[in-house]
Amino acid sequence: MKKSNLHFSLFVAMMATTFTCWSQVTIELDDFPRQAGFLDTIIRANPANVFAPSEGADQTWDYSALGQAALLTNQWFDAAGDLDFPNALNYEEEDLSFQGFIIPGLSFEALDNDGWYEPGRYLSDVIYPISAITGGPNDSLRFVGGKVEYGERINTIQFPMNYGDEWEGNRTEIVNYELTVAAFGLNKTPGQRKRFGYEHRKVVGYGQLTIPDFDGSAGAPMEVLLLKVNRSNVDSIYLGGAPAPQALMAAFGLTQGSMAADSFYVFYRPAFGAPALNVNLPDNSGGLTAFYRPQSLSLFSAVKEPSLTAYQCFPNPIAGGETLTLQSETPVNAGHFRLMNLMGQVVFSTDIKPELSNQIQVKMPNQMMAGLCLYQVLDANGTLLGAGKLQVQ
């Protein structure tokens, strides 16, 4: 009798344990509904309430006390038909920094059966005077614009993704430049910064995550996977086909083979096409930081909103004085057209009215700076309806 009661007690204990555990979480491609065009909304948390998450199965992570330090928005654009990256899903405006010099550009993302990844970026062509560094009145540093395709691929996440999965990858990113320094006998001498990046990613936990809603109240717990990322970058600087001279490197504060490394955690939930929460571990610059997306609390989120209207634009490339035609599959109402360079400056804007039910024609100014631009179509109230890339020649 006592033996029977013991077996029964063990059975009850096992059942109780079973029902208090969270179920395993899997994220498939169909569970990652990232759209081509949408407005991403991110909140930077008050660092006072940020902590590193625990790892393991059946975890409960309560970040509901995170305070709001800043509200950030980021516009993603549809990359369908892009000539530089034909397989890309979308892109965002993202500057690249090189020793304090800013290179405006676009960063592309792609999504396929294997994972979510970045195929490359597009950089604007920009020239900086550097007489304050070198002393030469005509010395300059030009960053050569154009397509930068990564030599390899790193999956940000992979499909399917389960607890215990891990993978690694590397890629090489090249920034081309031309350097003019009279004291070194350099006149538009070509060079490169080669950045070798390595990442190790592992799904180190699953369970339930709680984050604040937009109003600061605790949202409903959601089932998530926890991913830990360790990454590093090594920079090599070349000039004229050989490693850059040490004296020149020192003038720019560069060190051959310099390395930077960091680690962070990312929470993903099924049916949401972006991280729900990022927690960055401390480095030399300070303590923990975190960014979260309250829209991840609802499946009807910004990431799942309908894409911006897709426009076919031609001719593209276009020359000054030519007429640009924008055509969509949906009716077009009167509004505004504006053209911006990659630094976000509006270089041309005009009111528009549809020539046909689904077509807009815009006469471009006679004098235009050559290069890649972003166009936007807005309604009469200034709401963004559609956007895309336009090459000016």
Keywords, please?
single chain, 393 residues, mainly beta, Immunoglobulin-like, 2 domains, 3 helices, 7% helix, globular, disordered N terminus
Can you characterise this structure?
With 393 residues, this protein is mostly beta strands. It contains three helices and 28 strands. The strands form five sheets. The chain has a 17-stranded mixed sheet that branches. A four-stranded antiparallel sheet has the order 25-24-27-28, with no helix packed on it. Strand 24 and strand 25 form a beta hairpin. The longest helix is centred in the first third of the chain and has 19 residues, at 2-20. The chain starts with a helix and ends with a strand.
In round numbers, the mean pLDDT is 87
Please count the helical segments.
3
| CA-CA gap between termini | 91 Å
**Major sheet description:** 17 strands, mixed
- Count the domains: 2
* Weakly predicted, low-confidence segments: 1-21, 300-307
Summarize it.
The protein has 3 helices and 28 strands. By secondary structure, the chain is mainly β. The chain has 2 domains: 26-304, no CATH class; 312-392, Immunoglobulin-like (Sandwich).
Please write out the topology.
Blueprint (H helix, E strand, L loop, with lengths): L1 H19 L5 E2 L10 E8 L10 E7 L5 E11 L11 E4 L2 E3 L2 E3 L1 E7 L3 E9 L2 E4 L1 H4 L5 E4 L2 E4 L5 E4 L2 E2 L3 E16 L4 E25 L11 E18 L2 E2 L2 H6 L7 E10 L8 E4 L8 E4 L19 E3 L8 E5 L7 E6 L5 E7 L6 E5 L7 E9 L4 E9 L1
